Amino acid sequence: MNNLKVWEVVEKHEDYKLVGTTWVFKIKRSNTNELTTYKARLCAQGFTQAMGIDFSKTYAPTGRLNSLRTLIAFACVNKLQFHQIDIKSAFLNAQLKETVYLAVPQGLQIDKQKFCLRLNKAIYGLRQAPLAWYERLKTWLRSVKFAVCTLDPCVFYRAGSIPVWLYVHVDNIGIFSKDTSIFKTKISKEFNITDIGAADLMLGVKIRQTENGMSLDQQHFIEALLEQYGMEG
Hints:
- By secondary structure, this protein is an alpha+beta fold.
- It has helices at 65-78, 129-143, 181-188, 219-228; strands at residues 7-11, 18-19, 21-29, 35-44, 81-87, 101-102, 115-119, 147-148, 155-158, 164-169, 172-177, 193-198, 201-202, 205-210, 213-217.
- The protein has one domain.
- The chain is built from four helices and 15 strands.
- β3 (21-29) and β4 (35-44) form a beta hairpin.
- It is globular.
- It starts with 6 loop residues before the first strand and ends in a 5-residue tail after the last helix.
- This is Reverse transcriptase Ty1/copia-type domain-containing protein.
- Residues 5-231 form the Reverse transcriptase Ty1/copia-type domain.
């Protein structure tokens, strides 16, 4: 957060409406359900925001499952690579249009009676954060010659000697191209990314890639349901 200059400490004023904060703790697991990492994320309490003061528009598009299926079929026919990346702390890269003040979070060594935080960037939990991130990503993609699909605003494409198609679901991006490394190199200069490599799970759909094509299933969901209701035997 400090590196991205997400906020600045300012003196509290009686006219400021402060948005509350909370810590969210999460255990991340791999596709095989193995524990991988413990995460702690500072989030805004979006329910304390006031319409017209802290935010206005909030709707942000997310990629459609039909679009993903179409791109996968297209990749199979044209022998394209299908790789996947995650943008780390994506929302923290998005500039805010509104002026938002946060109450000092628990654990931050700042006098809560005298000071508060003025946000420069979006943080998780803000009602407008998903939209702010989508606009930030779309602006950058357009600057590097990508066009937005007219049928799905979360599908982008760039023509050229090695065309690239992108499927965006918030901070998760599927890349379809003869050479996905070109786009990975370019986007890693703008954002901090995790390179997952060949896509194997997106939108809750397990993707199995072979030399002859790709198959999709949701076996892990079925197994989780069986376990939940004691029917796995």
